Amino acid sequence: MKSIVLTDIRKMKIRETPKPQVKAGNDILLKIETVGICGSDVHYYSTGRIGDQIVKYPFTIGHECSASVMEVGSNVTHIKIGNRVAIEPAVSCWRCDQCLSGRPHTCRNLKFLGCPGQIDGCLSEYLIMPEESCYKIPVEMSFEQAALIEPLSIGVYAVDFLNEKANSVAILGSGPIGLSVLLSLKAAGIENVYMTDKVDDRVKIAKKAGACWSGNPDKTDIIAEIKQKEQGSLDTVFECCGDQDALNQSIELLKSGGQLILIGIPEHERIYFNIHKLRRKEISIQNVRRQNNCVRKAIDLVHSGRIDTDFMITHRFNFEETDKAFELVENYRDGVIKAMVKVGQ
Q1: Do 172 and 246 contact (CB within 8 A), yes or no?
Q2: Terminal-residue alpha carbon distance, the chain
Q3: 153-287 in CATH: which number?
Q4: Maximum distance among all alpha carbons in the chain?
Q5: Domain 2-148+309-342 = CATH 3.90.180.10
Q6: Domain ranges of the chain
Q7: N or C: which end of the chain has fewer CB within 10 A?
Q8: Same fold? 2-148+309-342, 153-287
Q9: What is the pLDDT of residues 80-127, one digit of tens each?
Q10: Which tens digits make up the pLDDT trace of 255-300?
C-alpha cells in the first residue's frame, strides 16, 4: 500500500509500505478515505517533535480521519464490513486505574494514532484500529464531515467543563479547535462568545460562524474592547492557540473567580502566569486532554443539524499533494482553516 512518510523536517514522500493485517480479535481493517491536517501534525512536520515526543524518521503522521471497513476480527460485534466510520485516534488499555475510573483519554498505557513511538498515522491507504475506536456514521454524513468529528469532539468535551453559571466567554485562537469550541458553545445555548486570532481571515470567519465579536490582538486592544463591551470581565476563557501572549490576555480578561480552560498546545515546554494576578483573582485553571467519550455526541450534534462544520473545510488536496497541504497549513496561507486530503479513490 502507499503511505505518506516524514523523512526529515518539512520533507515527506510517498512510499510503499506493508498492508496491515487483522490479527487480534477486535482488529478492524480500514480503508482510509479522508484525512484532515491538524496543528499537532504540523508540529511534527515543521519541528519533528511535540515536547518529549520526538519523530524517528521515516514516520507516518495524521490522526483525523474517516474510513470504510474492509475486514473485521473474530470478536468484533458492532462494526460490519462495508460500514463507514469516524475514528477516535486514541487507543486505551481499559485495564489501568484511569480507564477503570472513566478516564480512558488519560490511560496510563495510551497509544495515539500518528504519535512517535505509538501508532503510525492515518496518511496511508489502509490502517488497523480496534473496534472501540471506530464509530459508525449516518448514511447522510460525508467522509469529510466524519474526519472533522475528531477535532469537533475536543470542542464538545471542553465545553463540558464550562461553569453552568457562565454566560460571557472568550475563545483565544480561531483555528479548527477554537471554532469547534464556538460551535459547541452555541449548541449549548451560549451566545455571548468573543473570539480572537492573529490571522485576519480567521477573525472574519469567527464572526461569520457566530461569535458576537472578533478581533486581531496584533491590531487592536482586545482586552480594552472586550471589557468595554462586557462592562467588566469574562466568566470563562478558552485558550486554543498555545500562545504565551494569549495566556497573558486570558488572565487580564477574566473576572475574579473566573475559569481558564487550556486546550492549545504550546510550542515550548514551559509557560508562565503572573501568579499575583492569578492568585488575587482566584482563577481556576482546567487543562483539556483531547476528549473523553464525546465522539458519539459530536456525531449526533452534526447529524441533528445543531452543528454545521462544513464551513471549516477551506482546502482540498489529493493524496499526492499532501506536502502542499502541510506547507499551506503551516504558513496559514490563503485563508486556510482545515485542509483535507482525499486518500480513497
Answers
A1: yes
A2: 13
A3: 3.40.50.720
A4: 62
A5: yes
A6: 2-148+309-342, 153-287
A7: C
A8: no
A9: 999 999 999 999 999 999 999 999 999 999 999 999 999 999 999 999
A10: 999 999 999 998 888 999 999 999 999 999 999 999 999 999 999 9
